Amino acid sequence: MAGNAKASALRALLAKGEFILAPGIYDGISARVADRMGFPALYMTGYGATASMLGLPDAGLATYSDMVGRAEMICSVIDTPLIADADTGYGGLLNVQRTVRGYEAAGVAAIQIEDQEMPKKCGHTPGRRVVPAEDMVLKIRVAADARRDANTLIVARTDARTAHGLDEALRRAKLYEEAGADIIFVESPESEAELQRIGKEVSKPLLANMVEFGKTPRVETARLKEWGFDLAIYPGLGFSVAAEAMRQAWQHLKEKGTSNDMIVPQYRGMHELMGFPEVWEFEKKWAQV
């Protein structure tokens, strides 16, 4: 499925009212595993991408080039529409234009931009600062105008809740709706009551971040849909269970001196997952006789 076709497919699912459940992916292996699972969309997590590329925290250290390259690689190995974290747009208005066009060219279906100051921080960590709402409104307008395909979706995220309260976050959400965002993302609500209020007051399609170990209660999709949400992302689930599985496996190896009899399950069929059968077919076809 081409990049524009993926955006069109994601937009059509939202228009039909189908709830979009998107697991967080961050590298080639996680992308290929999730792509086989039948999810309507996948989410490229900035936390996971930064951690897997740089071994560093999601604190504004990954550059535009880092992230657009990771998005392009992921899009090249999946058929599922990708929602991708683009942080603050990596600078001013001209940077936002470049980011949107670069992510589009990479094959991304929906591009997420947030209203934090640079350097940004992970959405469930302290010390986040937001730009004036008017600055973010301009970024959204530029992002919407920069699209080469009208089907590409712009996700506007506000981080105002933690430092400025829910009223300010909702005020910004409404401004971002009017500015042309296709999807609204109010980061870090701190209770089910707050989630319900967000669902009542936001008109455009609404994204919930069901992050592991964060400030927001994790709520099953049926209730999120009932409260007015249209998408839910699980950005931390994949890398947190992968890291713990590796820790357990390597602990076993250290203690036992072997990988035999490990309780931790191993993925069977890695060759097939990574596309080795296609390589073998290619080599067979073009083998020298």
From TrEMBL:
EC number(s) reported in the record? 4.1.3.30
**Cross-referenced InterPro entries:** ICL/PEPM, Pyrv/PenolPyrv_kinase-like_dom, Pyrv_kinase-like_dom_sf
Q: What Pfam families does UniProt report for this protein, alphabetically?
A: PEP_mutase
Q: Origin, by domain of life?
A: Bacteria
Q: Does the keyword Metal-binding apply?
A: no
Catalysed reaction equations from the record: (2S,3R)-3-hydroxybutane-1,2,3-tricarboxylate = pyruvate + succinate
Query: MF terms per GO, please?
Result: methylisocitrate lyase activity
According to its UniProt record, this protein's enzyme class is: lyase
Q: Does the keyword Nucleotidyltransferase apply?
A: no
* Assigned keywords, A-Z: Lyase
Functional note: Involved in the catabolism of short chain fatty acids (SCFA) via the 2-methylcitrate cycle I (propionate degradation route). Catalyzes the thermodynamically favored C-C bond cleavage of (2R,3S)-2-methylisocitrate to yield pyruvate and succinate via an alpha-carboxy-carbanion intermediate.
Q: Which family does it belong to?
A: Belongs to the isocitrate lyase/PEP mutase superfamily. Methylisocitrate lyase family.
Q: How does it assemble?
A: Homotetramer; dimer of dimers.
| Protein name, entry field | 2-methylisocitrate lyase
User: Which organism is this entry from?
Assistant: Enhydrobacter aerosaccus
